[in-house]
Amino acid sequence: MQQEGIQQIAVVRLSALGDVCHAVAVVQAMMKLYPTAKVTWITSPLEARLVRLLEGVDVIEYDKKSGLAGMFTLRAKLKHVIFDALLHLQWSSRSSVLTRMLKVKRRIGFSLSRSREKQNWFVNELAPEPKGYHVLDSFLSVASVLGVQGVTFPCQLNLPEIEFDLPKSYVIVNPCGSKVEKNWTLEGNRAVVKRILEKGLTPVLTGGPSELEVTFSQNIESGIEGVLNLVGKTSVESMCTLIKGALLVVSPDTGPAHIATLVGTPVLGLYALSNPKRTGPYNDIHNVVSVYDELAEKEYNKPVRELPWATTVHDPKAMQHIRIEQVLAKLDTLI
After folding, report:
1. Is the pTM of this model over 0.70?
2. In order of start, what are the domains of the chain with their CATH numbers?
């Protein structure tokens, strides 16, 4: 059996947090198929905090800032390990070079249709064509070479106890993405917060500690009573627990939206820059409010079905095209 011949498995996915969420689901499915195998996951420091919630994974951090010196340190650390298989789940050339620091028998990468930055030069086995359009389906296609057929949600994560006093019923509003272009409007977020309050629920604002996110969240809650603002006050680990307890997460395309999928919380996604069929909340594509199709067709003068898989919209004001009434109408169906 294939399982008997595979006892050491390496996974390389450094970032970003949302993509690592997709990879967590795939790796957990693989671990169920190979319960005796040792899994070593190389990832970035922030994402490592999420991966460590997955029991049974040996997590090794690689900081991109360390460059080649960090790669050579990694090679020295793992010089005595021969991996039976490596899942190369990142499209970057940096990650491809990193994989060459490891001794590996089977280097498995994406199919040619999904391969980018010459990833196929660094592997010796290619995945079959993915069965779906989503990024997670691409990851799953790589793992399918080892026999993994599907993923299940919610994932089994070792979540910490929450350190906040929370209301019984709350909805998370995560207003900021990894780039400011992903953020929806101030007026739109305030309208969502008010609607949540009208439903007798508590809106909880979440986000990172950057000055932009803290200021934006303060402007959202300004003059509105009953909002719990936790922006800048949560770790990756506590964010997972916080999201698991929520009724719903309202968010653009960013980490917390995909954490919600991992822990089984519904998501109302707000999309304009990327195709939600490719990067949306995996179990809640039907709950996405998106203007991607119309903006992409306007920018490229082609139907979306004729555009390359990873095509994005470049309009810096794309998110402003999402109308408040669209989002409130979808919100009313979910809470």
Report:
1. yes
2. 2-144 (3.40.50.2000), 170-332 (3.40.50.2000)
